[in-house]
Amino acid sequence: MAAGECEACAGKGSTYWIRQLINNRFRINDTTVCYPRFPRFALKVYNWGDRTFNSYDTAYVVGTGKNWKLQAKSYNWIETSTMIFPRNAQISMHSDLFSDAGFSLSFMAVSVGYMWNVNSLFSEPTMRRTFNFDFTCSRFSVSYQSVTSNGGMYITRFGDYREGKHLRQRFDDISINTKNVYAYYFFRHQKYSHAACYTYSKYQLKSAGSALIGANFSEQRTHMDFSSLPPLMLIHNPLETNVYSTHYRVYSALGGYAYNWVLKPRRWCINATGLFGIGYRQIFDNREDTDTREMLANVVNINLSAVYNHRALFAALTFRGFAHINYNTNFTHLSSILTISAAVGMRF
């Protein structure tokens, strides 16, 4: 702090700088703020990180100039599970459409909010729990997702029952617990901004894309008990037993590409991101016969987003799809989580 600033801050209380930030609407780099030693050190560290991990070519990407965001959000997701057997036999199912709605208030990278279970207003709620975390800067993005559900599934195909035609059979004797961690690096991070379409903290001025490289860790526990299904259905069960359980972890290497399209007059930004991975599957409890094929797994991650900006206001629609493809000697198992979210908000 310069000598003149030290004199201006002399005799001020230890919390005076907090009142200054409130009065200047949290402009943290205001040179008149009387930071004590540790907060000033923390600010220097933050500014170094911001320059290193959040800088762009300003001909392509600029900041919004606002630190705060207030938004109303709707979050909707559906879970699917498909087992593909030889000779075109399948067991396919999907969950109800689960919906949450709420709001959030964000200051820079910190956000607080609350979401309500919309399904409980119209039907008997299904036991479910979700948690999502995302961090995105100019160079990389990290996301974590945890989904736990019990029941609420509908079987749409069950072996050659009804000659393999589509059906809708309620199925509640199922539990799925899935955890996913994705981390990927943007090679063209000076010109491409992932945050422009997913955290709404940047403006993409010109269309640009970037190759991606990253890693994924996922874990899934699944338990299905088909014993309660009608006897006529169970006759056509392509599994060797009416109870199927599995617990595995997958460690994958990822590669992909992301692109932002900017539509004139630069109010619309549309993003498409795709990642594909191949990895090692670690199976627990010896519930599947392990061979070389079963040790391999594929991971697919697809994100789509459309954002409309009008001055301090914004509206966004986002689709995310996560899928695991696992193999064993009897069938291929595809499980996925598909989400659609909408947001309307303002920056200030």
Structure description:
The protein is mainly beta and 348 residues long. The chain has helices at residues 3-9, 16-23, 37-53, 195-198, 231-234; strands spanning 61-63, 68-84, 90-95, 98-107, 110-117, 127-136, 140-150, 153-158, 169-171, 174-186, 202-204, 208-225, 243-263, 268-283, 296-310, 313-327, 332-347. The strands form 2 sheets. The protein has a 15-stranded antiparallel beta sheet that branches. The protein has a two-stranded antiparallel ribbon with strand order 1-11. A hairpin with a 2-residue loop joins strand 15 (296-310) and strand 16. The longest helix is centred in the first third of the chain and has 17 residues, at 37-53. The chain is elongated. The model has no long low-confidence stretch (mean pLDDT 89).
List keywords for this structure.
two-stranded antiparallel sheet, 5 helices, mainly beta, 348 residues, 55% strand, 15-stranded antiparallel beta sheet, 17 strands
Could you give a short description of this structure?
This protein is mainly β. The chain is built from 5 helices and 17 strands. The two termini are 28 Å apart.
Fraction of residues in H or I helices: 10-25%
Q: Which consecutive residue ranges, at least 5 long each, have pLDDT under 50? A: none
Shape: elongated
Number of helical elements: 5
Strand content: over 45%
State the end-to-end CA separation: 28 Å
Q: Averaging pLDDT over every residue, what do you get?
A: 89
Work out the radius of gyration.
Answer: 25 Å
> What is the structural class?
mainly beta
| Total beta strand runs | 17
Query: Which H/E pattern describes the elements?
Result: HHHEEEEEEEEEEHEEHEEEEE
Describe the sheet with the most strands: 15 strands, antiparallel
